[in-house]
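Meet today's protein:

…
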Amino acid sequence: MTVTAVGFDEVTTRYEPVIGLETHVELGTNTKMFCGCATTFGAEPNTQVCPVCLGLPGSLPVVNAAAVEATIRIGLALNCSIATWCRFARKNYFYPDMPKNYQISQYDEPICVDGYLDVDVDGETVRVEIERVHMEEDTGKTLHVGGATGRIHGATHSLVDFNRAGIPLVEIVTKPVTGTGARAPEVARAYVTALRDVIRGLDVSDVRMEQGSMRCDVNTSLNRPGEPWGTRTETKNVNSLRSVERAVRSEMIRQAGLLDSGAKIKQETRHFHEDTGETTPGRSKEEATDYRYFPEPDLVPLAPDVAWVEELKKTLPEPPAERRKRIQQAWGLNDHDWASVVNAGAVELIQSTIDAGTSPEAARKWWMGELARKANETGTELESLPIAPAQVAEVQALVDAGRINDKLARQVLDGVLAGEGTPEEVVAARGLEVVSDTGALGAAVDDAIAANPDVAEKIRSGKVAAAGALVGAVMKATKGQADAKTVRELIIQKLS
């Protein structure tokens, strides 16, 4: 069958998208969900395991109280109702990275239900309703070796690391989001962005999407106006804000092409490819009955005390929307400039840079200028750049001290991004410090005057503004390392 190529703008002239997002968040607890194993990221494979998280015979799980508290706080921050009684269930399925061949999760009795999160999309508030927030344990991690893509197809063998198996995981599931039309991709990204801000503010997870501590399954379907919702696909483990938006857009285009050609959409999981922005088939999507859920026999039900939940509610931080409004006012930004910062995902990066000792103007200049350009060139998120807010603040401190100028600062940023060390180390290694010694600059100034006699004559006749041309010549000759103010003073002094 020939599939019709469809442009994105055409999709919403004939179809209505319905999206839904299932976001998994690894909690930042010291130990796993049902045992005492450590949860340190990046540890040597299979060194943080025990009989419980490996599912060995005779081992029994014990619920992590800190994980329960963190989940309740997430539910409260998302305006959910907290269950007075809930329990765990066994979700039965086999994967190589599931050592027990089942996952302890929650099924029909989750701990948090019926919430919502309001998100801003181009100045308009969109309410995304939350169906449930529930607790479960993470799986291990499979590494496919020997192929070109890192996927199982083409690999010569696979390795399994069970360190991640059993880490506390919270799954946040939205209700179907309708009525967004062509903005569906943007709404999906805005929701995940806002959700990440909420969870980061609660300090219950580092929500590092690039490390997998927050990952998103994106459900997408299309239907013609007035018809029932279409068959959905689930794009699994999308690991960046940009990719969430691209995954929705890609699926809308792909499904519209199939539907226009008379084909049917298969209910399946799909894989998102960062390099092409497209999705490819995974496996047929199971229904709940395929998992054979039943109550977990080794764990008693949970009954959170109402008074305790009310006390937890008092510990919630300032809501992100209110905090952002306060920050916008503190930074003195108009709505347009603020929207640019938010859309770039730069709010927390700029704030952290300010906290490290830099002015709002300087912090925004670097993140929204040079660093945003670098992110765009590499197709990555700003926060994924290998530079910390404290290092950006250090670069600005070098500028403020007169040791480098803005042009040299961009070279320093390049060095840090390239892994050459701290800003101070890059300045020393590359010899980037500004030259302000009048003796060292004198020869370059004399050469510039000799090479530009007409300009020199204008300055002698009182047209001091013409000195800019000679300053530029000296800066070029010194590869930008001359102190412009000192150079200008020397020129006027020599020609006065």
The chain has a mean pLDDT of 88. The two ends are 82 Å apart (CA to CA). The first strand starts at residue 16 and ends at 26.
